[in-house]
Amino acid sequence: MIIAIDGPSGAGKSTVARLLSKEIGFEYIDTGAMYRALAYKAYIQNIDINEVEITEMLKTTNITYYDNKIFLDGENVENVIREEAISIAASKISALKVVREKMVEIQRKTAENKNAVLEGRDIGTTVFPDAEYKFFITASLEERARRRYEQLKINNIKVDYAIVFNDMKKRDENDSTRRFSPLKPAEDAILIDTTKMDLIKVTKTIAQYIGGSNVL
Ligand code: DC
């Protein structure tokens, strides 16, 4: 069974998808981490993010997601892909058609024959259009920026709220206006606005939808 959880950044997808997968014993697959890992490689190797350069880079790049961790060319990069610079580069790289095709293929393979909760932007629309359950989680831009800011603070990453807010706005624009698989709810997705909800409550709501009212 596939459960798709899509939505913009900062809406609470990761927290909810992690909590849910743990409670129901499903595998958790963070598809954003795959785009981030690619962006990280381009960033550290000073590779310009355009179709030609990235097509070349992909030929010698190996992305795997295993045991809740993301591996880039065999190395666990989980701890180096969450910085603002990588967030921006990931948004840019994820707009490339060649990147999307490759990542979608990897995502389908990773979830093959599994019970999995996949978190991303296009799971319900493109990666698994036949997913048994689709959720689109959102929240106001202000609230999402605030959450992201708090998260960065916890991780000891120093940054101004105004910068986080503006970056998030820019990423929203990139992700929803790109030509290939833009961020948008699938027609049959259940929409949940988390602006005023705590994420445990959101997870419980989702668990109820999938018939596990006694799950949490
Ligand atoms: O969820 P995240 O912030 O870790 O995602 C990083 C970037 O990757 C984000 O700008 C959108 C992109 N992304 C995507 O295009 N499709 C996905 N399925 C997941 C993420």
Low-confidence regions = none
Query: Strand order, biggest sheet?
Result: 2-6-1-7-8
* Apparent shape: globular
Average of per-residue pLDDT values: 93
Bound ligands:
2'-deoxycytidine-5'-monophosphate
Number of strands: 8
The proportion of residues in beta strands is 15-25%
Which series of helices and strands comes N to C? EHEHHEEEHHEHEHHEH
Radius of gyration: 16 Å
How would a textbook summarize the main sheet? 5 strands, parallel
Give the helix tally.
9
Report the structural category.
alpha/beta
Helix content: 40-55%
Q: Could you tell me how far the N terminus lies from the C terminus, measured between alpha carbons in angstroms?
A: 19 Å
Describe the structure.
The protein has 216 residues and is an alpha/beta fold. Helix content is 50%, strand content 16%. The chain contains nine helices and eight strands. It has a five-stranded parallel sheet, with helices on both faces. Strands 3-4-5 form a three-stranded antiparallel sheet, with helices on one face. The longest helix has 17 residues, at 161-177. The radius of gyration is 16 Å and the shape is globular. The model has no long low-confidence stretch (mean pLDDT 93). 2'-deoxycytidine-5'-monophosphate binds next to helix 2, helix 4 and helix 8. 2'-deoxycytidine-5'-monophosphate binds at residues 9, 31-32, 35-36, 90-91, 94, 120-122, 171, 175.
